[in-house]
Amino acid sequence: MSHHQSKAAYFEIRAEVRSNILAGKPMPRSRPEDIRNANARREIERRRLEREAKE
Hints:
Distance between the termini: 45 Å
Helix content: over 70%
Number of strands: 0
Mean pLDDT: 82
Region (Disordered): 22-55
């Protein structure tokens, strides 16, 4: 368990994963913070490319 999330969040994630396994559904893609981090990385890269294009 990550030390950055609460116990309630951990149990919520585990319950969702377990229910998906029992229902035969695919695993959840990513946590919301993973999606935010990926979006931030894309934005940083986009800005870097724009800055290089101006040079």
